[in-house]
Amino acid sequence: MDIRLHKNARTTPAIRRELQASTLPNKVLAAQYNLSVQTVRKWRRREVVKACIQSSGT
Asked: What is the pTM of this model?
């Protein structure tokens, strides 16, 4: 399966699964994966870890 990530994407589906499965605090995970706490919080709240397709707004 070929995964195409956005050029600025910092997480992969594997990292997102790890974020959701972890019991560590958001701040620790953010430091561990070089992410913002807000990004960690966002992925932990989501039910799916697949890449989200965003429209260009046009």
From this structure: 0.70
